[in-house]
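Could you join me in thinking about how sequence relates to backbone shape in a protein? We need material for that, and I hope you will provide a protein of your own picking. Label the sequence line and the structure token line clearly, so we can match residues to local backbone shapes. Would you write everything just below, so we can both look at the same thing?
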Amino acid sequence: MLDPKFVRENPDRLKEIIKNKGTNPEKANVDRWLELDKERIEISNEIAATNQRRNEIAKELSSGKITEELKVEGRTLKEKEQELQAKLTPIETEWNEISLWFPNIPFDDIKVGKDD
């Protein structure tokens, strides 16, 4: 599997390699992968922020500052995290499936073609 950073930084080169290697461009869809990657990162960041706030609430609760507002916010954040995770799972699945279709990057002196 290719480094996601390489794919983000070199989408046109990857498209050319896919074409030259004879890989199915519909299954190795770089543009769709980039869309999914952006969504995946956004949702992952949102989950991380939610977890961070939940941890802050847990610290406050464990230090004795138990209020109904904190309890409600904690439950709300837990539900939000579950919703985000449910949204993230199919995105990651499709992202991984497309990634598996990306061919290895050839050396510059390799000839273009489907076989040896």
Summary: The chain is about 70% helix and 0% strand. The chain has a mean pLDDT of 90. The first helix runs from residue 4 to 9. The CA atoms of residues 94 and 104 lie 19 Å apart.
